[in-house]
Structures are given as structure tokens and as C-alpha cells.
Design brief:
By secondary structure, this protein is mainly α. The protein has two domains: 194 residues, Up-down Bundle (Growth Hormone, Chain: A), CATH 1.20.1250; 246 residues, MFS general substrate transporter like domains (Growth Hormone, Chain: A), CATH 1.20.1250. Helix 4 packs antiparallel against helix 5, helix 4 runs antiparallel to helix 9 and helix 16 runs antiparallel to helix 19. It is globular, with a radius of gyration of 23 Å.
Amino acid sequence: MELMERVENNNNAEVTNKISRATRKEWIGLGVIALPCVLYSMDLTVLNLAVPQITSDLKPSSSELLWIVDIYGFLIAGLLITMGTLGDRIGRRRLLLIGAVAFGLASILAAYSVSAEMLIFSRAILGIAGATLAPSTLSLIRNMFLNPRERTIAIGVWVASYSAGGAIGPVIGGAMLEYYWWGSVFLIAVPVMILLLTLGPILLPEFKDPAAGRLDFTSAALSLVAVLSMIFGLKKIAENGLGWMPVLSIVGGLAIGMLFLRRQRRLADPMIDLKLFRSPAFSAALTIYTLITFIAFGAFIFIFQYLQLIQKLSPMESGLLALPSFGGFIVGSVFAPMIAHRFRPVHVITGGLVMATIGFGLMTQVRVETGLGFLVIGMLIYSLGLAPVITLTTDLIVGAAPPERAGVASAISETSSEFGGALGIAILGSIGTAIYRTKMKQGMPDEFPQALAADATDTLGGAVTVAAQVSSQLGAQLLTTANDAFVTGMQLNALIGALIAAGLAFLASWLLKGVKSSGHT
């Protein structure tokens, strides 16, 4: 049996080696593709650092401030599928370059906004332009790197570029805000986009589906409304807990999503080819990818509150402590293709999920007084474990689609990531909040003023603010109760993350058993 498998692997290696290899131009082009990916990730983080200065300068209302922060991510999530399909029709490079022009101009407009409304509009344009980046870059990789082994390496670099953007975003943004005004964080995008527009036409080839029909605008509208409704509802649950409005928004989004899928079955040239979901590798990889973003995003909403509100670290210090985790994602993504060259996807993905289980398990040991070591090491281990899983599941998702459908396959991959992250923040955030509020109500000192109790029971940040308004003894007692309550919720969510990662390891070992790696020999 072992001899037969060795012969089969050798035959696969010969087939793989016969597929045309990328030239130096494609590898340099990969560096160009990484530029907007780094920027995309940075833009999701740097604005949070600028919020205090924006609030002081533009004086937005609480509703306007929420839209300034949220509109970018909302429109990216809602338009990924449409942009992926559009790229298949008009050309992936063309769409990427159009998006780069729009992103650069919108960044300038945002930087020099003189009102909250102007900044919201600018962020909306940034979101529309940002939605072109992920599906265009990933689908270009699918077409530039036809050799499966090389494609896995390229996707590893693509994943690492997002991690790099997340790592350097707070550092660069913090440095810019220390010396310049808040608009400077948006101007970071301009030279990057100029470089992309200069090198892109030279180094990036054009690809599109020659048999593609016209874009169905009804389908595009249905997908946009469905995704926006569900993401909006999930975000509102994360912010305020369960309520009629967010539940109705999610249910409405699901209903519109069903209409979208029914329409795709009837169209001769659908936006999404539902036959993709018949591939076991595609469906299994998509499920795993969605759920690992669920646990990863769910963890981060607790981590930075713990570092800043309990350990009393500055945003810059908190960002520096998160660097090992981002570094773990970068290292894991870069080395994933080397591991995939020697082992089957089922072994790499299962092993990575086992590592993630260990990392989340360590985070269950975080305490109020002695938590930093367990937290940083746990984050590093789960990042090292999840990075190869993200790389290989992305490779399986994109590789399952024919080259002419690479754009929409890439968009499905990224949309699943957006949903996974939103679900993680909403569900795990709600669980943590429920535990915090329950323990706070149980442990609230009897002599505590009722007028302030509601704020202290609502969030950890509220408890920190209230503690400064009462006597030092009562404030210290309140903070002890609040910190213990928050850490209990954080521990439970780490346990949930560990259990989900362990369950996914079992699922991967079962569903991906017969799937062969792009680079396995």
C-alpha cells in the first residue's frame, strides 16, 4: 500500500512539474499584488486610532461616528461577490486598477474632510473601492500561477500581506498621529496606489472570462442587500445584545439571500456558479475558513480590552504585544507551502487546528494578575496554527474553481471570512457581555450608587469610568469585581475557541481525507 501511494505521489509530482512555471515577471507581480492587500488590512485598523482626533475636530454625533467607522467594512462585505463577478467579466487587472484610482482619490477626500458627512461619504467610496481589491488580487494569483505548488506559495504570500498590514497599521498610524493631523492616516494609501497604478499595467497580466455574459444587476442588488442586512444585524447584536431590529435585519437578509440563490439557479449566466458547492473540497474548505475567522475575530474583541483596561497598557503598548501574533500569522503563511510540499492538506490543516486548540487552551488560563504570558504565548501558538489553515483552505477554494471563475470563487472566500468575523464578534461578544453583566449584578457592592450602577454593569469601560467618580475604596472594589467578571467571560470564549478548533480538526480529518495538496509530492 505504501509503495502504491509513493508511485501515485511521484506521478502527481511529474504532472505538477509539467505545468508551466511562473517567470520572474509573475513573482515580481506578486509583490505588486501584495501592496493593496497590506493597505486594505491597514485601513481596517488605523481609523480606530484617529477616532479621538476626528471627534474633537469634526464633532460628529454618536450615530455619525458609528457610520464613519462602520461604512467601510459594510460596503466591502456587501460588494465582494459583485466585484468578483465583475472582474471575471471586464478583467481582473482592469477592475483592480479602477479600484486603485478610486481608493486613492477617496483617501485624499477623506483626509481633507471638513464635516462628518463628507468623511462618511469618503469612507463609503473607500469601501466600494476596497471591495475590488481582495477578489481581484486573489483571482489574478489563480491565473498567474498555474503550477499548483507555486500557487500555494503565492497564496501564502497573499495571506501574509494581510497579516503584515494588520501588524504595521497601528504602528504607522500611531506614528503619523503623533506628528500630523488625523487626515494623515488616509494619505498613507496615496503613494501605495500610485505605485500600483505605475507597475500594475507592466507586471500584471489581464484575465477575464471570454464567455461571460452581462452582469445581472438584480442579482447584484439582492446580494448587496442580503449581505448588508445580515452584517448590520450581527454588528448591532455585538453592540447592544439581542433585539427585534437586529434579528429582523438578519432574518430579512437570509430571506433575500434565498431569493438570490433561487435566481442564480434560473439564470443562464449566474453571478455564482452553485456547482462549486458540489465539490467536497470547496465546501469543506469554505466551512473551515469561515469558522476559524469566527474564533479568531471573536478572541480579538476581548484581547485588546484586557490589555488596555485591565493591564492598563497604552494602545501602542497593546499593539506591540500583539505583534508576536501577527508575526505568527506571517511566518505560518510563508512556511505553509513548504509544509504542504511534504504533507497532504488533511495533515497540515488538522495539525494547524490542533495547534490552535492548544493556543486557545492556554488563553483559558489568563488571570487578572498573571495573564500576559499565557495571553501572548497562546496568541502566538494559535496564530502559527491558523495561518497554514487559512493558506491551504484559500488555495482549495480558489483551486476548485475553473480559471475563468476565479474572481467569484475569491469573492465567496472573502465574503465567508467577513461573515465568520461578524458572527464571532456578535456571538462570542454577546456571550462575554452576558457573563460580565450577570457577575457584575451579583457582585455589585450594596452601597454603590444606583445612578452609576447601570453604567458599571454595562461594559468594562463603563466600570473603569465610574470607578474614577467614587471613593478610592469603593472604586477599587468595583474594579476588582469588573475585572474578574470580564476575565471570566474571556476565559469561556477562549474555551469555546479551543472546542471549535478541536471540532474542526476532527471535521478536517474526515472531510479532507481524500484531497491532495497542490504541492504534495
